[in-house]
Amino acid sequence: MTTRRGFLSGLLATGLAPQASWADLGAPALLSAARAADGSYLLAGLSADGALRFTCPLPGRGHAAAAHPQRPEAVAFARRPGRFADVIDCRSGAYLTRLEPPAGHHFYGHGVFTPDGRQLFTTENDYETGRGVIGVWSAKGAYHRTSSFASGGIGPHDMLLRRHNNSTELVVANGGIATHPDSGRAKLNLAEMRPNLSVLSLSGDLRDRMELGPDLQLNSIRHLALAKDGTIGFAMQWQGDIGADVPIVGLYSSGTSPRLMAEEDPRLRNLQGYGGSVAFTPDGSRVAVTSPRGGVVQVMNCASTAMLHEHHLQDVCGLAPAATGLAPAAPGLPPAATGLLASTGTGLIFALNGTQLAALNQQDLAWDNHLIPLG
Amino acid sequence: MKHLLFALAACASLITAPARADMVEEILGQQILPGMQALADSSHRLAQAAELICRPGASPLRRAYREAFDNWIRVSHLRFGPTETDNRAFALAFWPDSRGKTPKTLVRHMRAADPALLTPEGFAQSSIAGRGFYALEFMYFDPDFSAARPTEYRCALVAAMARDIATNAAAIHQDWRDSYAQQMRNGTGRYTDKTEVKQELYKALNTGLQLLADMRLGRPLGTFDRPRPKRAEAWRSGRSQHHILLSLQSLRPLALALADDNAPLRAHLEAVFDKAIARATALDDPRLSGVSNPAKRLRIEALQQEVNDLRALIESELGPSLGVLAGFNSLDGD
Fold first, then answer.
1. Residue pair B247/B212 in contact by the 8 Å Cβ criterion
2. Would you say the ipTM is above 0.95?
């Protein structure tokens, strides 16, 4: 019997399907996992102004997702320690296939496609050795595992693809924290942890690695953003004493020293040592971080490192640049070159620009950790 | 039938129970506004005393400092709106100070002996770590600073610090009185409705309990193998235990007001707060130096556990009644 799933993926594989694209879904600008009011989980597509474009059911709580650059397909990663990632046809919500990491690995919740859509990379834990791994999958037709390589550290979490100096490379946040599924999310190596930011070629050659000083060894590098000029923004999560004054956001460009943001600003404390998501504004002039624990979004000036604004939003976590060309989100808001979108566990999508804040949309959903821009 | 009647009677008593005054009005009128006024008034008296008296041990000065600091601790959980404008609360209270920025800043000030720092504008622009009650504590209670020379500059610096506290406290009080209280009453301005106002107050209650458990108790407790008595809050002036009591005493009425007409919850909260207050009183350990003594440590840990139980009770019983559910993201962490 031909299942719908087999049928669809078969069509996609042979290229006989009519050219399906994200336009079929009203060209969503963002993806986010969520929990529905009835307790079920889903993946949703959002327009640039925060309206719901589609939802697809998920079998369990999601974390982040990766969107195929052409086909309206998303890979939804399960919450860490994830044993699977489901590939979903976002037009129908149909489950296309399930990716399972090799025995002894689990997913960390993030992944990324190459721009041509032929390959998918996933962050993984080889948990018996504690080695961070990048899984490589072919996404040309039927998904299959092709290879893997070292992530350059322990506990890789977020990962982005960067076009830089005419080549494409992976930027990996190696959080430094060893975990084992037998002990859930328990952190097994805090005393020795060494987080880093690694830049790898698509075949796994280490091109660059950034580590912070020994006083910040307990600051787990977890989430990433990219500015147009290739500058990497990273957000950290502090594993040391509560009440320590530590930076949570930094910027890094290869060949230069990392710059830590707003280090002298006492409001850094309002983040409670936890960066949930990080994003640049479309013009790259500002970088922002969310903290669901502190219920704040902080926006910093990339040139001066100074904190510019702080917005208080309950259970905020997802963060993305406002789409360029997006009209002012609300009357009185300036254009979006310096704008951001943020999502909350209370179902709200906000536009932020300078000191201004406008609720764009509310759903009876709890938006999960991340807002992932498409394209 | 008997059960049904009883149930009906119970419903009727809920309906006919005398309506309590509006929750937000009660918290504003009986807690926040008087609290902010007391902070402003006592800070003003502190500035006056510091202008006249330089000797750190002089009892009128000590009394003025004590009263103003007490009044700050009583409102230190109300970290929203007027306290956050221009980082006023941080300028009043830079604590904890994990990197020792406060003494470093004060050493720098004393070395430079810059007259420009002594003007209100000059001082207001100086590092936040060198301002407020905790910086003043170094100047009054730490021998390295209380006798630092040149004496004349030290006296003028301390007077400038006290004046800065008074200016900030007055600004906070004025914003509350002139506009912020009204926004909260009406659910306008920063708030879209009255529910958001209640959620803000609920968050303040949690902020206070979290600060108490994690910072005021947790930082000096450290770990059993490595207690950190020198991390106790304001230990130089022997105020560590006192701050724990003050914060419990000011969080109690806030929690009760937020429980509104839920009589069983109020009774429960009262009992738990009273137990914690009794335990905090019985510590008899002004600087919390007992964190390094296994027997005394146990009692401090027990108090911390009680505060954490209180947080759990408030989150499960009080939060939902105010429309606040456990954070989907804040509890996940990844």
1. yes
2. no
Nearest CA distance, A368 vs chain B (angstrom): 6
**Angle at B38 (CA atoms; ends B284, B192), nearest 5 degrees:** 110
Chain A residue at shortest CA distance from B207? A294
pTM of the model: 0.91
Tokens of A306: 């100074």
HSE, CB side, 13 Å, CA atoms: give it for residue A282: 16
Determine how many CB atoms are found less than 10 A away from the CB of residue A208: 17
Task: Determine the topology of domain A19-373 in CATH.
Answer: Methylamine Dehydrogenase; Chain H (2.130.10)
Compute the nearest-CA separation of A367 from chain B (Å): 8
SS3 of residue A62 by DSSP: strand
Q: Where are the domains of chain B?
A: 22-191, 192-323
CA-to-CA dists, residue B169 to A91, A240, B69, B132, angstroms:
58, 33, 11, 10
Closest CB from A35, A345, A369 relative to B334: A369
End-to-end C-alpha distance for chain B, whole angstroms: 54
The domain limits of chain A are: 19-373
pLDDT in tens, chain B (334 residues): 344 444 444 444 444 444 556 999 999 999 999 999 999 999 999 999 999 999 999 999 999 999 999 999 999 999 999 999 999 999 999 999 999 999 999 999 999 999 999 999 999 999 999 999 999 999 999 999 999 999 999 999 999 999 999 999 999 999 999 999 999 999 999 898 999 999 999 999 999 999 999 999 999 999 999 999 999 999 999 999 999 999 999 999 999 999 998 999 999 999 999 999 999 999 999 999 999 999 999 999 999 999 999 999 999 999 999 988 778 888 887 8
What would the two tokens of residue A300 be? 């910093």
Question: Residue B147 class from Cβ within 10 Å (0-12 exposed, 13-18 middle, 19+ buried)?
Answer: exposed
d(Cα B213, Cα B307) in Å, to the nearest integer? 6
B310/B313 Cα distance (integer angstroms): 5
What's the CATH fold of domain B22-191?
A: A middle domain of Talin 1 (1.20.1420)
> Which pair of structure tokens corresponds to residue B247?
């914060």
Whether residues A80 and B334 touch (CB distance < 8 A) is answered with: yes
* Interface contact A345-B330, CB threshold 8 A: yes
Neighbours of A79 (CB within 10 A): 20
- Residues of A in CB contact (< 8 Å) with B are 35, 63, 79-80, 109, 157, 185, 222, 237, 241-245, 264, 266-267, 274, 276, 292-293, 295, 310, 312, 314-317, 344-346, 366-369
| Residues 6 or more apart whose Cβ sits within 8 Å of residue A61 | A33, A35, A41, A78, A79, A368
The Cα-based distances of A221 to A164, A275, A305 in angstroms read 21, 9, 18
Q: Do B90 and A344 touch (CB under 8 A)?
A: no
